[in-house]
């Protein structure tokens, strides 16, 4: 014998008072981030929300690059999200990195390719992963450093994109070592020259000064110049 249908009235249904705002913010975040897989991204969104962690949400909608012929997976906006989520920890467990990567609907093969560029253990320095991620986006040492400055700066978009010389030096030296074709004396001479400029800017490197530096135009290509 079938059970009788349960009848509900408006007075019986209680909507949690915070639910409408949660759903509104989630919808706005999904529109701004444009995830490939909404359900997978939503799992990461609500997991981060429940733990009080930074949400996997882009600052704004990213428009496709006109010159980009294929989908590279990783974008500047997505790398910014990963930096926001993982930078506070300095050392990141690879399993957690893979989880965050998956929640952003990024290709697993792309992360594997990045991790194979260095002798990483179960824990990785986030700044090294950030540098390698920038190399995926840029392809050349010049472009990689440009993306790194744009991600790390606290200046508003379109501003001078200052970053601390110590951070700039670390990223540049690391990427140059991964490149393997730039002599150490050339790396050292370049950084000494950049430091002189930084000392005049309260220890900060300005992106524009870096891009117009005489040695910058000769920066060589990186192993990840072929997009994954």
Automatic annotation (TrEMBL):
InterPro entries: ROP_DD (IPR047844). GO terms for cellular component: motile cilium. Its main location: other. Coiled coil: none annotated. Keywords: Cell projection, Cilium, Flagellum. It is found in: Cell projection, Cilium, Flagellum. Belongs to the ropporin family. This is Ropporin-1-like protein. It comes from Dromaius novaehollandiae.
């Amino acid at each position: 014998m079938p059970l009788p249908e349960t009848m509900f009235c408006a007075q019986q249904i209680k909507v949690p008072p915070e639910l409408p705002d949660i759903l509104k913010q989630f919808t706005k975040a999904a529109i701004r981030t444009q995830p490939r897989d909404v359900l997978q991204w939503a799992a990461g969104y609500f997991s981060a929300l429940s733990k009080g962690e930074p949400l996997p949400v882009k600052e704004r909608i990213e428009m496709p690059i006109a010159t980009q012929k294929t989908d590279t997976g990783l974008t500047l906006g997505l790398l910014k999200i990963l930096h926001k989520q993982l930078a506070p920890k300095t050392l990141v467990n690879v399993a957690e990195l893979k989880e965050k990567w998956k929640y952003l609907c990024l290709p697993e093969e792309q992360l594997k390719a990045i991790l194979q560029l260095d002798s990483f253990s179960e824990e990785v320095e986030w700044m090294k992963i950030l540098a390698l991620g920038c190399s995926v986006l840029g392809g050349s040492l010049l472009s990689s450093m440009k993306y790194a400055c744009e991600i790390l700066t606290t200046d508003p978009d379109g501003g001078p994109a200052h970053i601390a010389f110590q951070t700039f030096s670390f990223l540049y030296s690391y990427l140059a070592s991964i490149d393997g074709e730039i002599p150490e004396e050339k790396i050292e001479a370049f950084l000494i020259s950049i430091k002189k400029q930084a000392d005049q800017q309260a220890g900060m490197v300005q992106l524009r000064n870096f891009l117009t530096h005489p040695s910058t135009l000769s920066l060589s290509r990186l192993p990840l110049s072929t997009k994954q």
